[in-house]
Design a protein that fits this description.
469 residues; mainly alpha; two-stranded antiparallel sheet; two-stranded parallel ribbon; elongated
Amino acid sequence: MTEDTSSQAEGSKLWGGRFTGAVDPVMESFNASLSYDKRMWKQDIQGSIAYAKGLKGVDVVTEEECQLIIDGLKKVEEEWAQGRFEIKPGDEDIHTANERRLKEHIGSVGGKLHTGRSRNDQVATDVRLWLRSEIKDLKEMLKKFIGTFAFRGSRDIDILMPGYTHLQRAQPIRWSHWLLSHAWALRRDYDRLTETESRVNVLPLGSGALAGNPFGVNRLFLAKELGFPKVTENSLDGTSDRDFISEFLFWASQTMIHLSKWAEDLIIYNSKEFGFVTLSDAYSTGSSLMPQKKNPDSLELIRGKSGRVFGNCAGFLMTLKGLPSTYNKDLQEDKEKLFDTVDTLKGVIAVANGTLSTLKVNKEACLKALSPDMLATDIAYYLVRKGVPFRDAHSMSGSVVRLAEEKRVPISDLELEDLKSVHASFDADVKLVWNYEHSTDQYTSIGGTGKEAVLAQVKLLEKWIHPSQ
């Protein structure tokens, strides 16, 4: 009599006892997630070791059985670490694969490991463990990148450039002031990630499929073993909650917005029309047709990959929309978007840091882009210091600009008599207004573009990066 291998295969699945017929191969592939969730092999084993100890604590397994399970899991871990783990047909996901291999190592005792546990609380735990580790790496990368901003801000403090609104030249600022404006945005991103981290760091293990654990496994013990400060308070919510993923995906989107804006500025400043910066060859590419071109592909890819991250976030939110209570297979869609977003962010931050640390700022081109008309506001400030109300001073400054246009000269070339025709308060000391360094250094208050104010920003960032120094 021929053995029914298809039925046997279905019965070997974690859910197979209910079924007698074979799964359509197309459905088998459609349902499987091992191709991508295998990257959580370490976290799955980590959670299983803790759970084995939890089962020992309530006498579901003996001390000898617990040690046998742990030793077997460590063998599986070693196989993954050394690239020797053999994936077999029927390994739907990382949980199935690891349990199957465990039982091959230690026999039927391995079947006790899943007592009271479901893949629902298991996968929720694995993802939280994995993301917690990745957040730690991302925070270190962000801090290093912000440190590059602080270093360049200090080193390039004497470079002046136009500040822009509406992409129109507005007022003189320090290059470092522009640079640090992006550093502070990333500093907020770091804080947001820290806040997200606290909500990732909550343990769902022990929630079972949805109703909880019937064997009284001590969830606080599990949390301590796995380094979680607290556990989920409701088993239904514990198995279904993916808020921490959608929150992370939003964080990633917000961070990519900031990186994309920074990249856009540098793309413009790198153009021949501006010439403010020159990118290192290491972060540029050439043209397949025009040999004279040097393209800012590093920055363009950063800008372009923002759309990829936004799409992951929007797509996953649509997956969550309208799901009924507890676990649904739709939630399997979380991991590919999460993994891709983490990988993208890591690549982007690494390239962005390399681009910033190696680019050259062209001081003369930045200075050449300044023009006297950008000091029109300074004329108003000059009159304010002479006692003229600001609204009147603003109007008179406009009159000075119009007078210079009529005479077809820069406002700095107007004679003192011309200025006095607008207001009697103008005096010989007005010549100080035409000094760009003087213009920037009048902004001495916190957050201003004055030299000392900018250096104060650098010191704040450096103190945050190295609090013990």
